[in-house]
Amino acid sequence: MNEVKKSANKTPIEMLLGVDEKGRTTARKLYEFLELAKGQFSRWAKANITDNQFAEEGIDYEGFDIDVEGNSVKDYYLTAAFAKKLSMTAKNEKGEQARDYFIKVEDGAVKLTSYLNGLSTEMKAILMHDKKIETVISRVDKLENTMTIDYGQQKELESIRKSRAINVLDGIGSNAYKSISKKAFQAISRDFKEYFNINAYNNTPSARFEEAKTYLQKWQPDNNLLIEIERANNIGGQSWKNNIQ
């Protein structure tokens, strides 16, 4: 009876994805929903889940065994954030539908966090007695730890990176920009990724977006690159700006 009530409260897409009370779907349900190649689930799961260097067991997914026609096979619970990333690889209409759903789940988690932060200590204490709230808060914490910046934030970081590199080179018209701009752009990108321990800008944690902006705005090249810039911009002991006058 309880299962019937739970199903009645779910949207059609939640029922198709088999979303549980913790907001998770399973890899097999997602694979079926995305209408990916039949008979290739194990290969897909290995490439995109267990061998995915950017996915962590216990954080992004959790493996478990299920029975299929008398055989024990592997399946995985997926967080909303991770399921969204997997959905984006489908490149079809179902992938877009799944992605949009999990984005809404993440947005809801952010709004809930904002709401809880605005409550008094006393009210938070009262709500914490409710196990359902505790479960939701746990989900919010996990989502916050796995959410990455969106496309707009990524473009903003790239714009700051470009502006900062040009400024360090002393402008687009400088000799340094003409001769070693590529090296400067590579340096700021490399330092940024090493600092945040990521492989690409779009993997920057959303919770550290403001910190990421500040880092790029204050970035300085290492000593060797700084010397190269100064040499390039100082021709015969004069600034490149004096030489163009």
Protein described:
It contains 13 helices and five strands. It has helices at residues 2-8, 12-17, 27-33, 41-50, 80-88, 93-117, 121-127, 131-146, 151-168, 175-196, 209-218, 223-233, 240-243, and strands at residues 25-26, 61-68, 71-78, 234-235, 238-239. The strands form two sheets. Strands 1-3-2 form a three-stranded antiparallel sheet. A two-stranded antiparallel ribbon has the order 4-5. Strand 2 (61-68) and strand 3 (71-78) form a beta hairpin. The longest helix has 25 residues, at 93-117.
The average pLDDT value, as a whole number, equals 79
Classification by helices and strands: mainly alpha
User: Strands of the biggest beta sheet: in what spatial order?
Assistant: 1-3-2
Share in helix: 55-70%
- Terminal residue distance: 85 Å
Categorize the overall geometry. elongated
Task: Describe the secondary-structure layout.
Blueprint: H1 2-8, H2 12-17, E1 25-26, H3 27-33, H4 41-50, E2 61-68, E3 71-78, H5 80-88, H6 93-117, H7 121-127, H8 131-146, H9 151-168, H10 175-196, H11 209-218, H12 223-233, E4 234-235, E5 238-239, H13 240-243
Please provide a brief summary of the model:
Helix content is 62%, strand content 9%. It is mainly alpha-helical and 245 residues long. The strands form two sheets. The chain has a three-stranded antiparallel β-sheet. The chain has a two-stranded antiparallel sheet with strand order 4-5.
Question: Which descriptors apply to this entry?
Answer:
5 strands; 245 residues; two-stranded antiparallel ribbon; single chain; mainly alpha; 62% helix; 3-stranded antiparallel beta sheet; elongated; disordered N terminus
